[in-house]
Write a structure and sequence with these properties.
Length: 191
């Protein structure tokens, strides 16, 4: 049986005129062997490249064993913006200003959201993939909290350190990190 994050009522089969109904409660399991997914094929995620004084914050992911931005899955009860701020608080605790502007329209039943700077889809373990909403943010301080349950390490990287082979930072992570640093370079952006 697949592990998921929410309550679900499952009807397994109808056999000999009996309906077998099981109320299954699955809880998110955090282990080094598996990450919970909401859907078998595609999940939606957020990533945020947080910049302070021309440095970008990256975490060393415990399970994937690589440098990544702050981020994670968008839960079923969240919109991307709610997931963005939840992940920032869970993983580093920084107070940030997110790049971009959202519409100021005010219509009942509609909520404007901060648009991501980039959007991509990337393989996780085929056929499973993630649609990534990529945001840039500017930290008000460089004093982060290291959530040791979430990651092995967390640190600020300069643009030159992103290229240092000792860190083995992936091409996409490096590209987005460099773009975030340029976006906020010495206060030249509108964010």
């Amino acid at each position: 049986m697949k592990i998921c994050r929410y309550w679900s009522l499952l009807v397994f089969q109808i056999k000999n005129q009996e309906v077998m109904i099981h109320l299954c409660i699955y809880w998110r399991i955090k282990s080094k062997k598996s990450m919970a997914h909401i859907n078998e094929l595609i999940d939606f995620t957020i990533a945020v490249y947080i910049v302070h004084d021309d440095k970008v914050l990256l975490i060393h992911h415990k399970q994937l064993l690589k440098w990544l931005p702050i981020g994670g899955h968008i839960e079923l009860h969240e919109d991307p913006e709610e997931a963005l701020f939840r992940e920032i608080q869970e993983e580093c605790g920084l107070e940030v200003e997110v790049a971009g502007t959202k519409q100021t329209l005010n219509e009942v039943g509609t909520k404007s959201l901060l648009p991501p700077i980039y959007l991509n889809i990337h393989d996780i373990k085929l056929p499973h993939r993630h649609v990534g909403f990529i945001y840039f943010a500017k930290a008000k301080s460089d004093k982060f909290a290291h959530n040791k349950e979430e990651h092995d390490n967390i640190r600020w990287f300069t643009a030159n350190e992103l290229l240092d082979p000792q860190y083995v930072i992936g091409e996409y992570v490096r590209y987005y990190a460099e773009q975030a640093i340029k976006y906020f370079h010495k206060g030249e952006s509108n964010a």
